[in-house]
Amino acid sequence: MPPERVRDALRERDPLPGGRGFAGRLADPPDRDGPVLVRDVLGRQPLFVERGAASSATADDPTDPDAWSFDRTDLDDPEPVPAGAVASSAGTERVWSLSDGGPVDRESGQAAVDEALDAALGETEAGGDGTDLAVAFSGGVDSGVVAAAVPDAPCYVAGFEGCHDVAAAREAAAVMELDLRVVEITHDDLVRAVREVDAATGRRNPMDAAIAVPLYLTAEAAAADGFGRLAVGQGADELFGGYSKVADPVGDDRVAAETVRGARTETVRTLPGQLERDVLALRAAGVEPVAPLLDDRIVAAALALPGDLLASGGERKVALRRAAVGRVPESVRTADKKAVQYGTYVSRELDRLARRAGFKRRMDDHVGQYLDALLER
C-alpha cells in the first residue's frame, strides 16, 4: 500500500482504507515525532519486533532496522506487532479497530457484498503478469469464487488418499472445467512439513500444525511448478459466519456471545493470529499469498451484514453464497465444507503417527507431546 494512504489512514483513524492490509516502517507519520511501525487492523501482513522493543518508552527503538522484520526468523526473540497498532520508541498504541456499529438492512447489505465481491475478484490477478498465479482449491464456495475469477490459473489441493477435500476438489474442478493438480500427502511429507512450518511460524501445537501443513504443501507444489503467487479463500468463514459456533452460539462454550453477529465478531478477532501463521507458512513454501476475500471492501460489507445474512435456517455464509449465484455452479455454491485439518485427513494422520510413536490417546494432549518430541530431535 502506498505510504501516503497509510498516513491518511493514521491521520483519520480509518481501519479500512482500501487494499488488503499493510505493515512496515512509516518514516514520517502525521502528528508523531520520528518513524513508526504500523500493522493493519486485521493483521493481514505479519510484522515482528525483538521482544520488548515496542513495549515501553524505555525500550530500544523498534524502528531500528535490526529490531524489526516481516520474517520472524530474522530476529533473535521475535514478537508480533499487534494488529491495528503503531509501535515506536514511545511505546505501542492501538490506533485502528473495526466498527461495531449496527447492521444495515438485508437488501443494501446483500447489494454491498455483491458489489465488493465484483470489485475485489476483478483485481485478483493484480500484482503479477497473469501467468504467475495459482489457486488453492478445496471445492467449496470460498475457493470456488476465487478460482472462477481466474479460470486459466491452475488449482492445487493437498490431502491424504481418500480424503474429503481432494474428492470435493475433483468434483468441483470437473464441473467448473478447471486444471486441478492433486498433491497426495504421505507420512514423510507430513513430518517434513511439520518441521518446516514450525521453523517458519514458531507454531507447533496440533491445531496450528494441522491447519498450516496442507497449506504449506499446496503452496510448495505450486512453487515447484513455477508459480510465485497463490490465491486463497482465507477470511470467508470468519467474516461471513461459516462456523457452527456462529450459526448457533447459544450454549456453545466456544464463544461468549449469544447472537450470530456477536459470535461472528469473536471469530473475526481471531484472524490476526491465523493470518500470521498462514502467511508465514505460504512464504516459507515459496509463494506470496493473494487473498481477495480479505479485501477491505469485502471486510466492510461483511461486517455490516444482519445476522440472518450470516447464518439462518441451517445455512451458513448466506450472503456469500447468494453473491456466488452465477459465479460458480450450484453444487459448488451449496457445498458443505470441512475444516482443512479434517478435510485433508492431516489431523487424523498426526494422531496416527503420535500413537505409533507411543503417545497414546489416554495421555494428556498426546499429539502435542508427539510434536514436541518430534521437533526437539
From TrEMBL:
Could you tell me which residues belong to the region Disordered?
A: 1-37, 49-107
The record's Gene Ontology biological-process terms are: asparagine biosynthetic process
- In terms of superkingdom, the source organism counts as Archaea
Domain Asparagine synthetase stretches: 133-248, 267-360
Which cellular components does GO assign to this protein?
Answer: cytosol
Q: Which CDD domains is this protein grouped with?
A: Asn_synthase_B_C
Q: Which InterPro entries match?
A: Asn_synthase (IPR001962), Asn_Synthetase (IPR050795), Rossmann-like_a/b/a_fold (IPR014729)
One of the record's GO molecular function terms: asparagine synthase (glutamine-hydrolyzing) activity
The UniProt keywords, alphabetically, are: ATP-binding, Nucleotide-binding
Protein name, per record: Asparagine synthase
